Amino acid sequence: MSDNRIPVAVLGATGNVGQRFIQLLENHPWFRVAELVASERSAGKKFSEATVWRLGNDMPESVRDLVVQDYSADLQSALAFSGLPSEVAGEIETRLAANGLAVVSNTATHRIEPDVPLIIPEVNPEHLAAIKTQQENRGWKGFITTNSNCSVMHLVLTLKPLQDAFGLNKVMVTTLQAVSGAGYPGVPSLDMIDNVVPYIGSEEEKMETEAMKMLGGYDGGFQTADFVLSAHCNRVPVRDGHTECVSLELGAQPSPAEVIEAFEAFRALPQELELPSAPKRPVVVRYEDNRPQPQLDRDTERGMASVVGRVRPCPVLGLKYVLLGHNTIRGAAGAGILNAELLKAKGYLNA
Amino acid sequence: MSDNRIPVAVLGATGNVGQRFIQLLENHPWFRVAELVASERSAGKKFSEATVWRLGNDMPESVRDLVVQDYSADLQSALAFSGLPSEVAGEIETRLAANGLAVVSNTATHRIEPDVPLIIPEVNPEHLAAIKTQQENRGWKGFITTNSNCSVMHLVLTLKPLQDAFGLNKVMVTTLQAVSGAGYPGVPSLDMIDNVVPYIGSEEEKMETEAMKMLGGYDGGFQTADFVLSAHCNRVPVRDGHTECVSLELGAQPSPAEVIEAFEAFRALPQELELPSAPKRPVVVRYEDNRPQPQLDRDTERGMASVVGRVRPCPVLGLKYVLLGHNTIRGAAGAGILNAELLKAKGYLNA
Amino acid sequence: MSDNRIPVAVLGATGNVGQRFIQLLENHPWFRVAELVASERSAGKKFSEATVWRLGNDMPESVRDLVVQDYSADLQSALAFSGLPSEVAGEIETRLAANGLAVVSNTATHRIEPDVPLIIPEVNPEHLAAIKTQQENRGWKGFITTNSNCSVMHLVLTLKPLQDAFGLNKVMVTTLQAVSGAGYPGVPSLDMIDNVVPYIGSEEEKMETEAMKMLGGYDGGFQTADFVLSAHCNRVPVRDGHTECVSLELGAQPSPAEVIEAFEAFRALPQELELPSAPKRPVVVRYEDNRPQPQLDRDTERGMASVVGRVRPCPVLGLKYVLLGHNTIRGAAGAGILNAELLKAKGYLNA
Amino acid sequence: MSDNRIPVAVLGATGNVGQRFIQLLENHPWFRVAELVASERSAGKKFSEATVWRLGNDMPESVRDLVVQDYSADLQSALAFSGLPSEVAGEIETRLAANGLAVVSNTATHRIEPDVPLIIPEVNPEHLAAIKTQQENRGWKGFITTNSNCSVMHLVLTLKPLQDAFGLNKVMVTTLQAVSGAGYPGVPSLDMIDNVVPYIGSEEEKMETEAMKMLGGYDGGFQTADFVLSAHCNRVPVRDGHTECVSLELGAQPSPAEVIEAFEAFRALPQELELPSAPKRPVVVRYEDNRPQPQLDRDTERGMASVVGRVRPCPVLGLKYVLLGHNTIRGAAGAGILNAELLKAKGYLNA
To answer: Is A242 labeled as catalytic in the residue annotation?
Structure first.
């Protein structure tokens, strides 16, 4: 591969999300991993020595010998993907963005700030306009963009075509979330053998807040969408793939067939721009009674699609369906990479 | 034990629910298992030879040597507990009831018939009045009563005090159901390792129909309750214990504290009559963030209570909570036994 | 793909092994699936209508519209891959082989017959000589070859280089086997949630018998290898990937380092012939303390390698190690395909 | 309960083993929990406030209001049960024993010391004689006794009657161990969903060393038993209950029936003394093909027995069987309590 690809840094490289960034960037046509950043414990070691690789097979050859840098490092890359733990993300991402980097973050820290875009390229690419405001407000040469929490990501991706076609009034969602969302070591096995845990700290609040930001408009500032959302979040014994049971009150009262048609027809900017990581179909519909299932459907469109099924009337709110999405690909690292591709396509990366 | 206890038959004795009946009736103060009925494959054998016991430890000594009778047997007992498969339950239960037995059935077949009581003793004991109508309509000497589906049982038990105190308009429930509800062999392990299945055949319909019947009144006939219910049913990798995420619109708008107070205060006829299998508290409230959990809470009150937690406001419907209940004890065999205790206490068993 | 590939039939096409055959043959350079055979229940339907596809994503486009034939069909293909249930395999495979087909079978039925080769291409390709005897004995135009049971396959693949280098006296193996080995529905989830089952019917016997046949020589008839083997077989809650704990008494007394060297150096006929499905390394060595693991290592070499680790002294027998292999790829369908590739490379397929 | 029971302390009270001590001592006829010790994080709080109770239902009322003491506390009790983490156990247990307490420890720290008894009451009660030596050597008023690692406990309990009846030459064991053995949070769920881990740090070494000590004699010092043992240790997705596949070379060559007879006949000092926690049968034999299983058998004799099954010839070593034992009851806290009961019965507690 003759390599004039853009060199990028991965922050939090040894963690679960960091490893996914590295895995998904292997053989990426536009980006190549050039720098790795992790905590002091790993800094100064080769990546292959600092890291227990947990994604199956072996870590990509191209990163094995990269020497891990610590959090205070001055980076050469103009673009950084961040899977930093939230305790440290705020300060590090801020410093790098101030110094001129484009920071594409998967961390919750900056998501809700009033001049930081929280982006799903199929949903609210116009929010990128806030980058300019952010730079002006903060006197930064670089900037931060963020992607959402893994559970709200897939929900919003399926809500977008319905909001556009029918309007959105009320959303009720119950999640059955995979353990990989909590990182490693994450959820203890004693909580996940013959058990479910009906609680994930701050998750319900994040779903409610982030959905409102992403599905709201932008007119020089982010507008909050005007529907209400209620979430019940559960942890279940599944490795990857969040399942979500959704009931909706829409503005119009479409039939299930019309809703399915809206899902099937949904295409947006990433598909139009043919971004490398964009799924051909952002929302994929399954027609079997008992689908989607994590085991069978989480890798649909290389983990970049939301898969819906069981679209049917809801006696209480009007419409219901089930959705399933890969939480560490489209729900985390893949989301960041798609955001970075959008940034490049739109001219925000002048590396 | 000087034994003037009432001899009873267990129908479908070798199955999962049948085994639970036998386990829960061991040392029962009022009833003793005297007859066992199963399919031809088991008939004529000693129970210990016909049955693979799946409930831990060994089968009770008292039933080991009972010879299993086939479906056509004439029974000596005046009371039969039925865990028959639905394919055969209709005909067998009908024949036995016609011949004079009180049939206490866990099977779905007769639940919705207009003269068959579908009973939770804490909820609708007044529905027992339909027994007389049933006997008149059908010219039967005996009768059939039924208990509900395992997932709606616990929901209705928690809805009852709220309906009484505040009125009930709308109920949205998403279940995370244990595999024991599907019997043995039941759900294949390939569907339950690193997976959930967002569908259980007919379950959503049963929840909607049965809740309406049980929470409706009786005025010579069953009235349908006038609220709407919507269910999403999921199978998850848990052995015993259904978890349910509930959102409600009540008639009044109580605070979470008032709702908790209604749960805590709830006592009903079985508690008043001190029926042997009645839980002291039909609804038990947990106050921790991450409870109830199947592993920790399913055996509360010997599996006869519904355990609720996370009572909080719902942005869409007003109130939400999580409930957990043992699906093969209070949700099946234990429910039948409590129903039989109520029948005896109310004079319907004249054995 | 300009298609002068050899058309092949898959017998038992709707089952777990049949689906794996179809999945692995998609885009195969030498073979193309042209005919599908299954039981009467499926016969006459399009494959896409007859089959619930259980391997993730969707079934290959190329087979969706093939009409399933029943067990009595006369096939056009000259080669058939069989994943038939053992109850019917004997008769059907016999009829097809008599009629001229090369039947490559994954079923146990014919494995131990004295003129039927039980082949691992890296281990005993010389056993193919028995095909001629088989045809003479039986007056057949075609023939049957078989691959071994999934648990003994990987054991034998790792024993072969040790037998060659050091001689083999005693083998003790304890397996932790995945549920996919039992097909679908297979093992009930009630046996696999918070449980292991220390028994798999006939499995220990198969391991002992099949290993002796494959590691024995051929001198006009199969010789039984002259070592002893003892197996403990367990079912554990894993989808794919059998783990096996092995202790050995070898003829010589190599150090762990010498054993590892023998594993690392192992190459055989499929590697030499560059058969399309052959792993580059039939035995892959992991050096971490806690590997191999099913989750991380089962897809090594596209599921066609055995992965070993923890090579160390055994106080009782001299040497011990852990091995891990994909049970439905190298342990079943992939084994059959590699066998067919060997048959073609050696001129046994004259289609 | 008129309470002249002996007051005892539980060290490491908030951990998994500590909670089991408390649960099993609830309603104990000889001991009552009077003092609780844990790390600084918990010290000074009521136990109910310091502890997340993880054993189902609620913590015993009797300990809810006890104030947790820190590691440096001077205790009033004359007997302490220790479930301390190994990092701190050495120093704390030493200090308390020096000061006069009988310390009954589940921690590995002191197990192998040449004057510290490592006791299973059915196996080597004569090792208690070392207490006197220990006190003399160290100038202590109190003393330390220990129980073994959870996986070797059940193995040794089943080896003892065979050693006595037939002599013991070689033992090969492969374990499938439950996650509760690693405490909480312990094993990450990402390692235990669709996976096994073929490694537990130091476990194989502990099994080999501790078995030799317990099955060796005592003649003023501990003798090492003269057989060899080889262990493969695996972690599997089971909550409680270690399964172990055992192959043996005995001195004599008994038939499986004779071995079963030795298991069935095994009774020892705890049964003779009728110690309160002693199982009636230390080794329980199951005769079904597919037993013992964790789910069905771990609670046999209230978790205090080892359950064996599948006793059959081993082609390599002569005899093989499967065993199953509860790892946190007989394998940890229950073992300590039985040891303390033996100490009392033998006059070592003069509280």
So the answer is: yes
How many Å lie between the alpha carbon of B121 and the closest alpha carbon of chain C? 30
Give which of C100, C132, C96 is closest to C116, Cα–Cα. C132
Q: What is the pLDDT of residues D125-168, one digit of tens each?
A: 999 999 999 999 999 999 999 999 999 999 999 999 999 999 99
The partner residue sitting opposite A299, judged by closest CB among C57, C297, C300, is C57
Inter-chain CB proximity D239 and C194 less than 8 Å: yes
In angstroms, the separation between the Cα of residue D103 and the nearest Cα of chain C is 34
Q: Model confidence over D281-334: pLDDT tens digits?
A: 999 999 999 999 999 999 999 999 999 999 999 999 999 999 999 999 999 999
For residue range A291-314, list pLDDT tens digits in order. Answer: 999 999 999 999 999 999 999 999
Closest CA to A120 of A338, A343, A279, A306: A338
To test the contact with chain C by mutation, choose from A49, A291, A296 the residue with the greatest count of C C-beta atoms within 10 A, namely A296
CB contact under 8 A, D57 and B300: yes
Integer Cα distance of D184 and D17 in angstroms: 10
**What confidence tens digit (pLDDT) does each residue in A125-172 have?**
999 999 999 999 999 999 999 999 999 999 999 999 999 999 999 999
Angle at which helix B150-166 crosses helix B256-265, to 10 degrees, equals: 110
Best interface-test mutation with B: which of C190, C239, C295 has the largest number of B CBs within 10 A? C190
Size of the A and C interface in Cβ pairs below 8 Å: 23
* Chain D environment of B299 (Cβ under 8 Å): 56-57
Q: Where are the domains of chain D?
A: 6-149+333-345, 150-327
Catalytic annotation, pick one of A150, A154, A233, A326: A150
| Cα Rg of chain A (Å, integer) | 20
Q: Which two tokens stand for residue D213?
A: 């000590």
Query: Which residue of chain C comes nearest to B195, CA vs CA?
Result: C239
Q: Where are the alpha helices (DSSP H) in chain A?
A: 16-25, 47-50, 61-64, 86-98, 130-138, 150-166, 203-214, 256-265, 269-272, 294-297, 334-345
B-D interface: how many C-beta pairs under 8 angstroms?
22
Residue C56 to residue A193, Cβ atoms within 8 A? no
* CATH match of A6-149+333-345 with 3.40.50.360: no
Regions of chain B where pLDDT drops below 50:
351
Q: Which member of C54, C57, C299 has the closest CB to residue A57? A: C299
CATH for D150-327, among 3.90.320.10, 3.40.50.300, 3.40.50.1980, 3.30.360.10?
3.30.360.10
**Could you tell me which residues come within 8 angstroms of residue C125 by beta carbon, excluding any fewer than 6 positions away?**
C119, C268, C269, C342, C346
- Share above pLDDT 70 across residues of chain A, in percent, rounded to a whole number: 99
Regions of chain C where pLDDT drops below 70: 1-2, 351
The pair of three-digit structure tokens given for residue D80, joined into one six-digit string: 């302490």
- Residues of A within 8 A of B294 (CB-CB) are 194-196
Q: How far is CA B135 from the centre of its chain?
A: 23
**What does the pLDDT read at residue C2?**
58
By C-alpha distance, the chain A residue nearest B205 is A315
Q: What CA–CA distance (Å, rounded) separates D324 from D306? A: 6
Which CATH superfamily hosts domain C150-326?
Dihydrodipicolinate Reductase; domain 2 (3.30.360.10)
Cβ–Cβ < 8 Å for A75, A69: yes
Residues on chain B touching D299 (C-beta within 8 angstroms): 56-57
d(C-alpha D108, C-alpha D142), whole Å: 19
d(CA D241, CA C331): 30
- Write the ipTM: 0.96
Do the Cβ atoms of A24 and A10 come closer than 8 Å? no
The β-bridge partners of C306 are: C283, C325
Interface with chain A: mutation pick from B170, B176, B196, B250, highest number of A CBs within 10 Å: B196
